[in-house]
Design a protein that fits this description.
The complex is a heterotrimer of chains A (about 425), B (about 250) and C (about 425).
Chain A lengths: L2 H16 L1 H39 L4 E4 L3 H4 L8 H12 L7 E15 L4 E9 L1 H7 L6 E4 L9 E5 H7 L6 E7 L5 E12 L4 H6 E5 H8 L7 E6 L5 H11 L8 E4 H4 L1 H39 L1 H9 L4 H37 L1 E2 L9 E2 L2 E2 L3 E2 L5 H27 L3 H6 L2
Helix pairs in contact in A: 1-13, 2-11, 2-13, 2-14, 11-13, 11-14, 13-14
Chain B lengths: L2 H6 L17 H10 L5 E11 L4 E11 L3 E8 L7 E5 L2 E6 L4 E4 L16 H5 L4 H4 E11 L2 E10 L9 E7 L5 E7 L5 E13 L2 E11 L6 E11 L10 H6 L4
Antiparallel strand pairs in B: 1-2, 1-13, 2-3, 3-4, 4-5, 5-6, 7-8, 8-9, 9-10, 10-11, 11-12, 12-13
Chain C lengths: L4 H12 L1 H38 L5 E5 L20 H9 L4 E15 L4 E9 L4 H4 L6 E4 L8 E5 H6 L7 E7 L5 E12 L4 H6 E5 H7 L9 E6 L5 H14 L4 E5 H4 L1 H39 L1 H9 L4 H36 L11 E3 L2 E3 L9 H27 L3 H5 L3
Parallel strand pairs in C: 3-8, 5-7
Antiparallel strand pairs in C: 1-9, 1-10, 2-3, 2-6, 2-9, 4-7, 5-8, 6-7, 11-12
Helix pairs in contact in C: 1-12, 2-10, 2-12, 2-13, 10-13, 12-13
Chain lengths: ~425, ~250, ~425
């Protein structure tokens, strides 16, 4: 750093310090603005990530593998055969893919009818590998009675609470499932209610039945097959790279195995996240614009107050550029210091929320569904280095933008005029 | 004895000597009752009365059947529905609608719906197999009721059988193996519906209960009655008769 | 008080440093604008949710036989077995000043078949002439045309059309259990295909002229299941429901009138939550603004410390000084409010009349069961405007309190001697 710059910097810092009260007030606006930005972004990221994770756990994973055409037709004609599943298993174990995969679930999904002695209700039958599914899906945790399926289960079912009520059944009751098997014939299968869940999403609670995959394969005559493999990644950021790698590894089977990410599989959820994110950024843009205005005002005032001082320093040999640089530095120092404090405050608040989350229960009268996912009113923040980088970027941009005009004004000061100024 | 039998063939128990079966186990008796119509073809004419809270109507229909897997039912009257036919082959059901001259396969999601507005569901038509395969059978009562020696069988579904009932009770007259009633229970032991048999008479050379009545427990006052006016056995039908072509064109209008 | 000279002095002081005033009022005006526009967008989203959630099919108000819900039995028609004078009842509902349109409907469950494929469907009989004034589902038609009144024509959802390989002009067989116990069946023509964006409607719904459905299920024209009505401002619906319940139930027809708030309570819940968020927004924006205003006022009063010292020396009480500074803050907020209104109004009006298309950013989604289209329509947030105005004044006054207190405590002697 040149001596000149060091001198200008010292001048700038001294000036900020002599104007303690003003600097603190201006700085506070920045602290609040940045603190909010950091905290609210980490809350938004945490909320969205939680939301996406819930959605993909309820649904088809961050990435889902299925036969091309299954998404549209949803019949057993479009299924992954034994060798497809073997290839998928190999792909998931591939060194380029495996580290990103947090879990996966092999499922066989189809529409059918659930009947009891009292009623018959159309349902979505999801045949699962119980141990995998327990780690993958949100549903097992939504248990209200009985238990979730276990590996040894055969004729067991995990059903939604509203479905159980419509069929007038209890835990342990018989339930007959009817569906079209692989040959297109209607086949019936007995299962017993092992457990009951309540997710809060009406369609799920009214019409989803989990049964063991082994049972479904025998019943529907599709030994070794499944309709989809749902893959859970560390977080939604990993989706893009993981999808590309899976596509590459499975390239020779592209006609048998299609790779879909959650945005394609659940467009409504994606849109909801984008909409919420958009609203959040608009909000920050506004608060930061207000903060920037306050800073412009402060620095500008300070410049106009010191017209005489600048006149003197200019008369003593400072160039216009030096004067401008001094003001720029003043603005940058003020915004950086207060901005960094703001980021620190934001991080501190975020840290406090890591353990218990922020509880928005007071805003909710009842469960709220958005894009097929029930909101969890307790939001846990999620920290990511990029948030800090974003915030630092904002600090710099605000500093530069709000100092530019005052600095320009300072360079326009004419020495002769300034000397007349008192 | 199952509901589909009611619609396809009346349990034709013939040649039973009174008391013949007393030594047999419960399972054997029910098996004999059940097996007597296996592999047999029949053709009957039936009047079905359906009484509901909102309407009541009478339908006349002709029923061809082969064992428990195949049945073809064609409605003869009333005029509005005449020609409408239902084909059951294995687990699938098709309906033929003469008004629009189209055949429709009943989708899985509608298997629980009522068949022709009666108290039978589409499922009742298909979800029937041999009772001895699906149920553990014991004799719950053996003795006289209203002056007639009867057995009351307790049918408990086997652990893996794809049946919706929690249990069935069946009363059979000992002297001629004629069914008297069947009661269907859910798993809590609550009665869901009752089937009663009466008007035992000889048709097609066999003794049959000519009248059956279904009483759904959850709709008091409602009932479906099925009465055979004639019935023939061993009329020489084979599986090829129960085709979609027959569904559209079979004789008997 | 308005005659007090302090107002004019306050105004003058603002004019003393125009640039500073410009930035401060700019900040406040921007805060006001931001809060109001965000509030408007929020209201817009709520209105979109409620509007679509109730507008696509339900309507904001429904009349049923009191036994109809929740089983939706075919036989529980309005007025019972005898039915009712449909025209008179539909007109009676539409007669309410808040109801803009009403239309009769018949519901049935049945099969839609293409011959090769058959699916179970909810059949709704609608009046093609009156329905568009109540719900928007007919406007989502993206292929073919609407069914003609009384004709054996139907429109089906996009997903059902795909499953049955239907295109406009194709033949469909409809089968439904009829009210006389028979199995109603008839040939229909697929007049068109609609696409609402809501999976359950697009997959499981077929709409046909009310007369055709009544014929299919053997119901006379006098028997309908529902009268749906449109209430322009959905929040008036509960009031209308309460008002109509009397006269309609009072006629020979025993009917139940319910508003969307009863049959879609989750939407009310969301709206309540979203309004709670508005408050947080308001507080945050103006808390930030307080620092800016306080700073400016502090500078402004510091510049005038000689003036205050002189006034105090001349015997002016500190209370008067405080009042004068506060008066300046009030003048400042008035100017800011006017400026805020000037920049906010065009944005509100523009985004209300020509909502920006956001499909570049996000696609359609659902919220509490209501479809959200990717457009950003602003609704006028009247209450929010008032709240934001009050908040703006409060902000300015609160921010001026400290500078005012300091001004009143200027030590006259020291200040005047320049120490």
């Amino acid at each position: 750093m040149s001596d000149r710059l060091r001198l200008l910097l010292r001048l700038a810092v001294r000036n900020i310090r002599t104007q303690t009260r003003r600097s603190i007030l201006t700085g506070l606006a920045m602290v609040v603005g940045l603190g909010l930005l950091v905290m609210s972004r980490s809350m938004a990221e945490g909320g969205h990530e939680d939301w996406i994770e819930k959605g993909v756990r309820m649904g088809s994973g961050h990435v889902t593998l299925q036969a091309p055409g299954f998404a549209a037709r949803r019949t057993l004609d479009y299924r992954l055969a034994r060798d497809d599943l073997e290839a998928v298993r190999m792909a998931l174990g591939d060194s380029s893919v495996a580290p990103a995969v947090h879990g996966y679930a092999v499922r066989l999904e189809l529409a059918g009818l659930a009947s009891s002695a009292n009623a018959a209700v159309p349902v979505a039958i999801v045949a699962v590998e119980p141990e995998r599914e327990r780690r993958f899906s949100e549903l097992p945790a939504k248990l209200v009675e009985g238990r979730y399926l276990v590996a040894e289960d055969g004729l067991h079912a995990f059903v939604g609470q509203q479905l159980l009520e419509r069929l007038d059944l209890d835990v342990g009751s018989r339930l007959v499932l009817t569906a079209q098997d692989a040959e297109g014939e209607i086949a019936a299968q007995l299962v017993r209610v092992a457990g009951v869940f309540r997710s809060g999403v009406p369609e799920t609670d009214q019409g989803v039945v989990h049964i063991p995959l082994s049972t479904a394969r025998g019943w529907l005559r599709v030994e070794g097959s499944a309709t989809s493999v749902a893959i859970l990644l560390a977080n939604s950021r990993a989706v893009g790279p993981a999808t590309r790698r899976l596509e590459r590894v499975l390239a020779d089977r592209a006609d048998r195995v299609a790779v879909l990410d959650w945005k394609e599989a659940m467009p409504a959820l994606h849109a909801a996240v984008r909409l919420d994110d958009f609203a959040d950024w608009v909000f920050h843009a506004i608060t930061l614009a207000i903060v920037a205005l306050a800073i412009v005002n402060t620095i500008l005032m300070s410049v106009l107050h010191r017209t005489r001082e600048f006149g003197v320093t200019r008369a003593l040999g400072m160039s216009r550029a030096d004067t401008g640089t001094q003001v720029m530095l003043e603005g940058l120092v003020l915004t950086s210091v207060s901005g960094l404090i703001g980021i620190g405050v934001g991080l501190g608040l975020t840290w406090l929320l890591f353990r218990n989350g922020l509880d928005f229960t007071f805003l909710f009268e009842q469960e709220l569904e958005m894009a097929g996912v029930v909101f969890d009113p307790v939001i846990y923040p999620r920290f990511h280095v990029s948030q800090i980088l974003w915030s630092l970027g904002f600090v710099f941009v605000i500093g530069v933008l709000s100092s530019l005009y005052p600095a320009y004004r300072a360079t326009r000061i004419e020495v002769a005029e300034a000397m007349k100024f008192e | 004895m199952s509901t589909v039998l009611v619609l396809s063939t009346t349990a034709p128990v013939s040649g039973q000597e009174p008391g013949d079966a007393q030594w047999e186990s419960a399972r054997d008796i029910v098996d004999r009752v059940d097996r007597l119509m296996r592999g047999e073809s029949s053709l009957g004419t039936v009047t079905m009365d359906v009484v509901t809270e909102h309407w009541s109507r009478t339908m006349e229909m002709r029923i061809w059947s082969l064992g428990t897997d195949y049945a073809l039912i064609r409605i003869l009257a009333p005029r509005k529905d005449a020609g409408t036919a239902t084909l059951r082959a294995g687990n699938d059901i098709w309906n033929y609608l003469p008004r629009v001259d189209r055949t429709i396969k009943i989708p899985t999601s509608l298997m629980g719906a009522a068949w022709m507005g009666s108290h039978f569901t589409n499922d009742d038509l298909v979800k029937e197999s041999r009772m001895i395969e699906d149920y553990d059978i014991t004799i719950a009562f053996d003795g006289p009721r209203e002056g007639i020696e009867v057995w009351e069988f307790d049918l408990a579904p086997k652990p893996e059988a794809a049946v919706i009932w929690g249990g069935i009770r069946l009363e059979v007259r000992q002297h001629d193996l004629m069914p008297v009633w069947m009661r269907y229970y859910d798993e809590r032991g609550d009665l869901v519906r009752t089937l009663t048999f009466s008007e035992y008479s000889r048709m097609g050379g066999r003794q049959v209960p000519a009248l059956m009545e279904v009483l759904p427990e959850d709709k008091p006052g409602e009932r479906t009655t099925v009465r055979y006016s004639d019935l023939e056995f061993d009329i020489g039908l084979d599986e090829s008769f129960f085709s979609l072509r027959s569904l559209r064109t079979s004789p008997g209008r | 008080m308005f005659r007090s000279p302090w107002w004019r002095i306050g105004w003058r002081n603002l004019g003393r440093n125009r640039r500073r005033t410009l930035f401060t009022t700019g900040g406040l005006a921007l805060g006001f604008c931001a809060v109001v526009v965000m509030g408007g967008l929020n209201r817009g989203l709520i209105a979109e949710m409620i509007g679509n959630g109730t507008g696509i099919l339900d309507g904001q108000l429904q009349v049923h036989d009191s036994e109809y819900l929740p089983e939706r039995s075919l036989y529980e028609t309005i007025g019972g077995r005898e039915g009712t004078d449909v025209e008179r009842l539909v007109a009676a509902v539409a007669a309410d000043p808040f109801v803009s349109a009403s239309t009769p409907r018949v519901f049935a469950g049945g099969l839609v078949s293409s011959g090769d494929g058959t699916v179970a469907a909810a059949l709704i009989g609608i009046d093609p002439a009156r329905e568009p004034a109540v719900s928007t589902i007919l406007s989502t038609l993206d292929e073919g045309r609407l069914p003609l009144p009384g004709a054996n024509e139907l429109i089906v959802g996009r997903e059902m059309a795909r499953q049955l390989s239907f295109a406009a002009g194709d033949e469909a067989v409809l089968v439904a259990p009829a009210a006389d116990g028979s199995m109603g069946n008839d040939l229909f023509t697929v007049a068109g295909v609609f696409d609402t964006g809501l999976a359950e409607l697009d997959r499981g719904l077929a709409l046909l002229p009310i007369g055709a459905l009544q014929r299919l299920i053997a119901l006379p024209e006098s028997r309908i299941h529902e009268i749906a009505a449109r209430v322009e401002d959905p929040w008036h619906a509960p009031e209308v429901a309460a008002r109509l319940a009397g006269p309609i139930a009072g006629s020979e027809t025993e009917a139940e009138v319910s508003a969307w708030t009863t049959f879609r309570p989750e939407m009310v819940s969301y709206a309540t939550m979203a309004e709670g968020v508005e408050w947080m927004l308001l507080v945050i924006v103006f808390v930030i603004a307080i620092f800016g205003v306080a700073n400016t006022m502090l500078m402004a009063t510091f510049e005038r410390r000689h003036e205050f010292a002189l006034l105090l020396a001349l015997g002016t009480t500190p209370g008067v000084i405080v009042r004068s500074v506060l008066a300046e803050a009030v003048v400042l907020s008035t100017v800011s409010l006017v400026a805020g209104a000037v920049i906010t109004a065009p944005i509100l009006v523009w985004w209300h009349l020509a909502p920006p298309d956001m499909s570049w950013l996000y696609g359609g989604t659902t919220l509490a069961g209501g479809l959200m289209r990717p457009i950003l329509r602003v609704e006028y947030p009247w209450l929010m405007i008032v709240e934001a105005a009050v908040a703006l004044f409060l902000t300015a006054v609160l921010a001026a309190l400290y500078p005012a207190w300091r001004s009143a405590r200027v030590p006259p002697a020291d200040t005047l001697t320049g120490r």
